[in-house]
From TrEMBL:
Region (Disordered): 352-430
The protein's name: Cation diffusion facilitator CzcD-associated flavoprotein CzcO
Keywords: Oxidoreductase
SUPFAM superfamilies membership: FAD/NAD(P)-binding domain (SSF51905)
Tree of life domain: Bacteria
GO MF, one example: monooxygenase activity
Comp. bias regions, Pro residues: 357-421
Keyword Oxidoreductase annotated: yes
């Protein structure tokens, strides 16, 4: 039975970054991707999302950034990922949808249908795209119009001449309103909380600060928040027309959904006012895709998976690394998380199977591989003259084990037995 050092689940930005660093360390692994083609979640993004819109995407390690290219993001980035996989000969298998991960003594078993892989560690890089979050509101099932989540956004033309409610306070809601408002008959933006707008430029330092705040949550075992909830929102140039049309005048959440629209909590009526709607767009985000990890019982009593200070190792089971979770769920932290996860895998393997890691000259794994001259394992191999293991083999004259033979007068061990005339340190007789 082959035992891998690691199985990486997911081949998005974080998964490919992890695979690159695992390969550099000489660690055996495979990458299991549920998609039929390279590109991670990017291949499923809407057609109107261009490379001009995703200027913040981070490059993969040891590769140029794709952000200088023009075209649709759902075409350019998958091609970039695919080229990267080939150039670095990464061991990606697809399509493979993992059903569950189970513990088997010191090892883990990753199961996908009738296939399985046995490994010392796993790196979960499944992200969030496959788990859209659709909150419940009273009357949600009664609406006669259309409801869709950001994940299934078809582009702005789909909404031409229609009355559209957009629900959610994140960057996706802002972007979709920017596209929908100029073609729709009317739009209504509702959020649970007042949006936080960013007034200054988004710098790398600001990005790192945002990641650090989300990292603090997962270190405490809390469910992660999105990075954008920390960085704040900003309008891009292509959203100025929607701003002029009043699309970003935020309203509080409706009280219920009715067949013909949403009931807003507006005076003067205690019952509120009905806002007629044809479409409700749920820009309400995603949740981590981690159901396959349930057999490992990783969640803390506070609801999240607690990670160590490195930001990727599960405290409940150090065999598990999580990337694309919490702070690394955005492109800001994904690349760095891949490097940290590979480091975490190497640390675990070095403890559990030290012979798997290449040792520098003169640093072979103790008592596993043959030792260089003068470095034999103590008390296992014969000792050179004058270096026998204490109290195991007969001692030469004047080197008897202390406290075994009578000591000459004047050199007795305090409160014990007499000491020999020449006291030899314990280090020299080891």
């Amino acid at each position: 039975m082959e035992i891998l050092d690691s199985v990486v689940i997911g081949a998005g930005q974080a998964g490919l970054s992890t695979s690159y660093h695992l390969k550099r360390r000489g660690l055996s692994h495979v990458v299991l991707d549920a998609n039929a083609a390279p590109g991670g979640a990017w291949q499923h993004r809407w057609d109107s999302l261009s490379m001009h819109d995703v200027h913040g995407v981070a490059a993969l390690p040891d590769a140029d950034s794709p952000t200088g290219e023009q075209g649709r993001a759902n075409v350019v980035i998958p091609a970039y990922f695919g080229s990267y996989e080939r150039e670095h000969d990464l061991p990606v298998l697809r399509p493979v949808r993992v059903d569950r991960v189970e513990s088997a003594g010191d090892l883990l078993v990753v199961r996908a249908g009738n296939r399985s892989w046995t490994t010392r560690t796993i790196v979960n890089a499944t992200g969030t795209w496959s788990q859209p979050h659709l909150p419940y509101y009273p009357g949600i099932g009664s609406f006669r119009g259309e409801q869709l989540h950001t994940r299934h956004y078809p582009g702005p033309e789909h909404f031409r001449g229609r009355r559209v409610v957009v629900v959610g306070g994140g960057a996706s809601a802002v972007q979709l309103l920017g596209e929908i408002a100029p073609v729709a008959a009317d739009t209504l933006w509702v959020t649970r909380r007042e949006p936080v707008w960013r007034t200054d430029d988004f710098t790398p330092d600001r990005g790192r600060e945002a990641v650090a705040l989300v990292e603090d949550r997962v270190r405490r075992g809390l469910p992660p928040t999105s990075v954008v909830s920390v960085t704040g929102l900003a309008l891009r140039e292509q959203e100025r027309e929607a701003e002029r049309l009043g699309a970003y005048r935020r309203r509080p959440m409706f009280t219920r959904i009715e067949p013909g629209g949403v009931r807003m909590p507006d005076p003067p009526s205690d019952d509120g006012v009905l806002w007629p709607a044809d479409v409700i767009v749920w820009a309400t985000g995603f949740r981590p895709a981690i159901a396959h990890l349930a057999p490992l019982r990783l969640r803390s009593e506070r609801g999240g998976i607690q990670l160590d200070r490195g930001g990727t190792t599960a405290v409940a089971d150090p065999r598990v690394q999580l990337v694309g979770y919490g702070p690394s769920a955005s492109t800001i932290g994904a690349n760095r998380a891949g490097r940290a996860a590979a480091r975490g895998v190497a640390a675990w393997v070095s403890r559990q199977a030290p012979e798997r890691l290449p040792q520098p000259p003169g640093r072979q794994a103790p008592e596993r591989l043959p030792q260089p001259p003068g470095r034999q394992a103590p008390e296992r191999l014969p000792q050179p003259p004058g270096r026998q293991a204490p109290e195991r083999l007969p001692q030469p004259p004047g080197r008897q084990a202390p406290e075994r033979l009578p000591q000459p007068p004047g050199r007795q061990a305090p409160e014990r037995l007499p000491q020999p005339p020449a006291v030899v340190s314990s280090a020299s007789s080891a």
